[in-house]
Amino acid sequence: MIKITEIAYLNIKKKIYYISKTVEKYNFRVYIQGGGCNGFQYKFIIDENINQDDIIIREKNIKIVIDSISFQYLQGSTIDYLENLEGSRFLIKNPQAKNTCGCGLSFNI
One GO biological process from the UniProt record (predicted)? Predict the structure, then answer.
């Protein structure tokens, strides 16, 4: 399972609402992409599409969508949101990650 902190949920909802003025049409997609300082990067986008192999996590009234390959790397993770002097961003607390970069957006297993 993947957990979502309350602050992450509120910011996901806010970003989806900013795009569409509703949260029903769009999804928050989380996926893993090769690259970054440590081999893999976490990516986040607002997406209309749901693919056949996507795993859908319904949290309150939003949908988190993760493709099946990325999902296996994210099992047990928590999606969080950080605001500080450097800016704001979504981040993943991933118990499977052996190493992460300083910003937390890159990891390896």
Answer: iron-sulfur cluster assembly
Using a 10 angstrom Cβ sphere, with 0-12 exposed, 13-18 middle and 19 or more buried, the burial of residue 82 is middle
14 CB contacts (<8 Å, ≥6 apart)?
Answer: none
pLDDT tens digits, one per residue of 31-77:
988 776 657 788 999 988 999 999 999 988 889 999 999 999 899 99
Q: Where are the domains of the chain?
A: 3-108
Among residues 28, 32, 50, 49, the alpha carbon closest in space to that of 41 is found at: 32
For the domain 3-108, what is the CATH code?
2.60.300.12
Question: Is the predicted pLDDT of residue 101 greater than 60, yes or no?
Answer: no
